[in-house]
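Lecture 7 notes: from sequence to structure.
We start with the chain below.
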Amino acid sequence: MEHSEPDSSAAEPLSPLRSVHTSNFPQLLSTLNCSLAVTTYQANRLILLRSEGERINTHFRYFQQPMGIAHGRDRFAVGSKREITEFRNVPAVANKIDDKRTPDACYMPRSIHFTGDIQIHEMDWGIDDSGADAQPTLWFVNTRFSCLCVRGSDYTFVPRWRPKFISAIAPQDRCHLNGLCMENQRPKFVSALGETDAPAGWRDNKATGGILIDVDSNEIVARGLSMPHSPRLFNQQLWVLNSGDGGIGIIEPQSGKYQPVATLPGFTRGFAIYDRYAFIGLSQVRESAIFSGIAIAQRPEEERWSGVAVVDLITGEPVAWLRFEDAVQEVFAINVLPNEVWPDLINEDEALLNYTFVLPEEALLDVPDDMRSCS
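Predicted structure tokens for the same chain:
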């Protein structure tokens, strides 16, 4: 077991953001040639987990209640309390960053879309077929209004789909729609905590009322789940986090029955698959109105923790983990950043934000040579 301090010049020897991890976690990330992005809305942080020799480097960035994240095509999006911030990879900035090593990806902000407090949950890049032509877009789960949405330049959000049992677009969190699974760049499955059309009606039966819905048919394909999150497709199987039990498992295609594969020491939320491995977020839930009555909350508190667990999806065995020790008590989302071992994301560095200008190639021809920086 290795100990990691947050990557910050102001870090104290016993920082509340410290973590411990199994000795094989850094090597696993190195072997896969990737890093991880993790959000925790409770601690108001986006965390980059980066392999640094025999340790995991935890690189923290502040956001107000960050939840859903989406990565792909040199772009990165973060959904927080009131907005979606979109970043683009600008490799030329990497040499200007004062870090232990030069980043192999550097994400700079490009746009902020104000959504209001919609309790944004999972997000992913895909294609929107609603117009005359399929357009690349960012899909996101609007939990407060019980629908799937895209951004619109003139609108707070643009609803594209909702469960057939939801009768109206209203800010009432009727079913706690939360997880989003894409297939062929289009929404395929979603998870919700209840099949209900009443305001916050999902709370009455959260321990066993969870469902998965096929977006194309708008039919429920699995029932009886415990606060499920994050449906995913892997190896021609539908996987899901049965969060209330601390579980990960498979939905049997004919019966819709949940088949558990592994049980982990926390509320499972946040799920990314890369190669044969599942990177799963764990939260140290405490007994409360939201989490009362679920199996994971009945386990002794010392047996529940917050962090990231790695499960081999071929064998079903947990193979590595990272545990936060103090301030980070819950995890929401996890994304794998392929081929980015030491990425960075800039959202608070005033000098870089004020004096980094990205121009089209034709405009760069008119910039003096001594002012031009090329990647």
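Points to note: The first helix runs from residue 25 to 32. The CA atoms of residues 246 and 267 lie 5 Å apart.
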